[in-house]
Amino acid sequence: MAQYNTAGTVSAPLELARGEHEAVAINGNGARVAPPPKVTLTSLTPNNTGTLRKIYNVVLPVTYSERFYKSVLDPSLDDVNKLVYYADIPVGACCCSLENVAPKQGEPTLAILTLAVLAPYRSQGLGSALVRHALRAALHPTVPPPPTPPASGTATRGQLKQAPPRVVINRATVHVQVGNEDAKRFYERLGFKEDKVVDNYYKNFQRMEPKAAWLLVCDDIAGALGETGANGA
Ligand SMILES: CC(C)(COP(=O)(O)OP(=O)(O)OC[C@H]1O[C@@H](n2cnc3c(N)ncnc32)[C@H](O)[C@@H]1OP(=O)(O)O)[C@@H](O)C(=O)NCCC(=O)NCCS
């Protein structure tokens, strides 16, 4: 498989919608306020997969396979899948896959697979920031990073081929375990709507009960992000 340079691009500090920018008085006069902690998003790389695995193992009720952790490193997802750092501490992540992105397959779709934020860092907008970032990246694909030649120094033409630009994606889906009303409301606030119940969605995850999931769909990412058209027109 061709290798690409996904050397861990770090975003500029995020402006969160709420929470973390509230002024905090740190002396009796209320004269000084604590500076807001820096929040950044970082690409997934083989070097931070261990961090990603730790966060998911702590937060999520299922253990994901090595295959999963390899698949989320795919170069075509470099701008979508991110770890979030709070004051330089990795505290959460969102991983997605892309469906129907080849020609004539149906409507291109961003499928949110996993989203987790460590409990002490919740309710500050980090989860929403991860999802909104993935939605924005799907809607506004960037040029994939160039391939990195293999360490041996010799590469076939295929190994050096740059991944083609992605199509614009204006639809997103996520499955939420039936009964997890908080998570459902969380996604509804971000522009998703319940589409249907998928029975036995978690059949391969023994510890997950119930096995049914709500399929939530966002049919208009541009609208959900407050953009009027797919290209911001
Ligand atoms: C869902 C999750 C990523 C949200 O992260 P976050 O950083 O707190 O997200 P935000 O600050 O943007 O939004 C907070 C809202 O998320 C909602 N929420 C969704 N799922 C929640 C959960 N399991 N526990 C607590 N709150 C949850 C709450 O309504 C909360 O609203 P509040 O701040 O008014 O209490 C985080 O709660 C989490 O990791 N939960 C466990 C894993 C999970 O449920 N993943 C999603 C299932 S698909």
UniProtKB/TrEMBL annotation:
One of its GO terms (molecular function) is acyltransferase activity, transferring groups other than amino-acyl groups. GO terms for biological process: mitotic sister chromatid cohesion. GO terms for cellular component: NatA complex. PROSITE patterns: GNAT (PS51186). Residues 39-213 form the N-acetyltransferase domain. Signal peptide: none annotated. InterPro entries: Acyl_CoA_acyltransferase (IPR016181), GNAT_dom (IPR000182), N-term/lysine_N-AcTrnsfr (IPR051556). Keywords: Acyltransferase, Transferase. It comes from the Eukaryota. This is N-acetyltransferase domain-containing protein. It comes from Cutaneotrichosporon oleaginosum.
